[in-house]
Amino acid sequence: MQKTRDKTNLSPAQGAQAQPPLETEGGCSELEAEQAAADQRPATRQRILQAALETLAERHLANTRLRHIAEKAGLHYGNLHYYFHSKNELYLALLDTMLQPITCERKAMLADASIPPAQKLDTLLQRNQELIERGVELRVILDFLVQSGGNAPVRKKLQSMYRSWRGDMAAIIEQGIAQGEFHPTQPHLLPVLVVSLIEGYTNQYLLDPDAYDPGQYFAGIRAVLYGLLEAGE
Q1: Engineering a disulfide at 51: which of 36, 73, 163, 227 sits with its beta carbon 3.0 to 4.6 angstroms away?
Q2: Radius of gyration over every alpha carbon of the chain, rounded to an integer in angstroms
């Protein structure tokens, strides 16, 4: 007798109506069996996101299809829809996965009154240097940035990233001014200037990583930034 599927075990992302499983030879539903096992693995969603990151880094956004991500994750293509309803939903979740740890660390550091503002800025620069040297996440984010003109949700997500980055840097500079540590003449321009210096170098590094040493370049950014922070003394 055919066993009735327990609807309580369906993933929340599956929606109200499940797509019919693909039947294999002999009447065995390979897709349904795989989904039943996948529902018992909380790490499946994260595995898909990691597979998406690796696939996009290898193939780039324009050449990536959901089946490529499914293959990398070791899942049947149809099972992706149990976790993400669309490619865009998957991509937005991937952006969150890449950006949230960076943002959370920055917010926590910003709120920590025991850390001097100069040390906070130095840590921000160090984290950006590490991100550039890893390369994988930045290649994917840059790819999204290039394609964001035709994708309003992705563009909004990236706009939020830059605003948060600049806003937190501005807040640290204000902390330094209040504590008498910084004396810039135009503090409102420093966040966008530093972000522009980092982004410009990022593009060059990803295209030609042997041309410029990240350590030397970020030492130069520090010299420029701290010089401007002391310009009003």
Answers
A1: 73
A2: 23
Cβ contact 194:169 at 8 Å: yes
Prediction pTM value: 0.76
Question: In this predicted model, what pLDDT tens digit does every residue of 90-133 receive, in sequence order?
Answer: 999 999 999 998 999 999 999 999 999 999 999 999 999 999 99
User: Which of 29, 57, 82 is at the close of a domain?
Assistant: 82
Q: Are residues 98 and 189 in the same domain?
A: yes
Residue that the structure tokens 């920590």 belong to: 112
Largest CA distance in the chain: 85
Contact 153, 88 (CB under 8 A): yes
Which residue has tokens 């984010």?
Answer: 141
Structure tokens at 193: 């200037």
Burial (CB < 10 A; 0-12, 13-18, 19+), residue 122, is middle
Computed from CA positions of residues 155, 161, 164, 170, in that sequence, does the dihedral angle turn out positive or negative?
A: negative
| Residue 44 to residue 196: CA distance in whole angstroms | 37
Number of folded domains that form the chain: 2
Pairwise CA distance, residues 198 & 169, whole Å = 13
Residue-level pLDDT at 8: 36
Specify whether the backbone of 60 is left (phi greater than 0), alpha (psi in -120 to 50) or beta.
left
